[in-house]
Amino acid sequence: MKLLLAITAVVAAYYLQCEAKTFTRCGLVQELRRKNYPESEMRDWVCLVEHESGRRTDIIGPPNRDGSRDHGLFQINDHLWCNDSNIPGKDCHVTCAELRTDDITKACTCARLIFRRQGFYAWYGWINHCKGKPLPDISMC
Ligand SMILES: *[C@@H]1O[C@H](CO)[C@@H](O)[C@H](O)[C@H]1NC(C)=O
Fold it and tell me: Which InterPro entries does the UniProt entry name for this protein (predicted)?
């Protein structure tokens, strides 16, 4: 019985993950190039995404101190940028679920808006792990 439960859990976990996507480093670079992210910022974006979400599209972060949460590839905050209901809203005019889909178009647009307002300083993942540090090698991408 325990074994059956364990197998069920593994199978369920597999299917729940089906929707999720983990980009390879070069896959991410290609996708960001397609969205016209400038080449001069590319390694910073890759570094940011790797530290914020591990390049996974479906991630919801643990609650922040103010109770807000961070969503998707860029770990975008629902206090300011997305509405955590089924009605698109806040500054990016999206639902937070739309920032966690495999199609990263909306997440990329929202991340650009955040960047225009605050630069990379909007992301602790970038401040703590990328700013002034060696950036990921994308020369093979
Ligand atoms: C977010 O969604 C709720 C419905 O759950 C809606 O009442 C609210 O106006 C929306 N907020 C924004 C900022 O659009």
Answer: Glyco_hydro_22 (IPR001916), Glyco_hydro_22_CS (IPR019799), Glyco_hydro_22_lys (IPR000974), Lysozyme-like_dom_sf (IPR023346)
Choose among 49, 2, 45, 62: nearest CA to 21. 49
Identify whether 50 is a catalytic site residue: no
Q: Please report where in the chains the tokens 């955590």 appear, as a residue.
A: 84
Mutate to test the pocket of ligand 1, among 79, 80, 83 (most ligand atoms within 8 A of CB): 83
pLDDT digits (tens, 9 = 90+) for 47-104: 999 999 999 999 999 999 999 999 999 999 999 999 999 999 999 999 999 999 999 9
Indicate the residue type of 56: R
User: How many domains is the chain partitioned into structurally?
Assistant: 1
Q: Mutate which of 77, 78, 79, 87 to test ligand 1's pocket (most atoms within 8 Å of Cβ)? A: 87
Residue 141 lies in a domain: no
Q: Which of 52, 58, 78, 98 is catalytic?
A: 52
140 part of a folded domain: no
pTM attached to this predicted model: 0.86
CA 14 to centroid of ligand 1, rounded, Å: 32
Quick check: is 44 catalytic? no
The pair of three-digit structure tokens given for residue 54, joined into one six-digit string: 């591990």
- Per the CB < 8 A criterion, the answer to whether 74 and 110 are in contact is yes
Indicate which CATH number applies to the domain containing 59: 1.10.530.10
